[in-house]
């Protein structure tokens, strides 16, 4: 019997007949049911079509209307698994900012399945990168850690190796005014290729749209995105 990664309590697992007859291998849960309930899942039937925000209708939200006014003819069509609520903020603090790599296991299975089942096979999955200084400090790319058995392409890199101000510390206006931080590092152009960007959180969309522009400039015909939270 294992302990919950979040609250530390022992996890009690009751195996039912449905699992017994499924012939699926058993995998120990890493968080208890009470902690899992704190993460709010998003339903595709009630989200913004541009960013995946949970809402009462399927019309573009104010954020996405703003992106359209700024010249984005094709929105990212982002899809996310969870709402960025207090439970998710606490998770990101522990996993992403404190660098507890074990916490990748909390969402690794679900997010990996979400990614592989969301689009057809003729797409290229591209990760949002981590700058070199952050990587050396944290020791891992938090987005890569959320994926298992998913073939990804590292086609984006930061333009500079110098430390930059993290998006999480900026105001909304400062985030929107962030200059293009990425450069293309692929060996060949993406002529006609459909691309799915993968990131942990969609906040303002600024980072993802910067990545989208670089990929389009290098031949991508369509760029959409998937995130763990919105």
TrEMBL record:
One of its GO terms (molecular function) is glycosyltransferase activity. The keyword Transferase applies. Residues 169-229 form the Phosphoribosyltransferase domain. Keywords: Glycosyltransferase, Transferase. Gene3D superfamilies: 3.40.50.2020. It comes from the Bacteria. Transmembrane segments: none annotated. The keyword Glycosyltransferase applies. PANTHER family: DNA UTILIZATION PROTEIN YHGH. Belongs to the ComF/GntX family. This is Phosphoribosyltransferase.
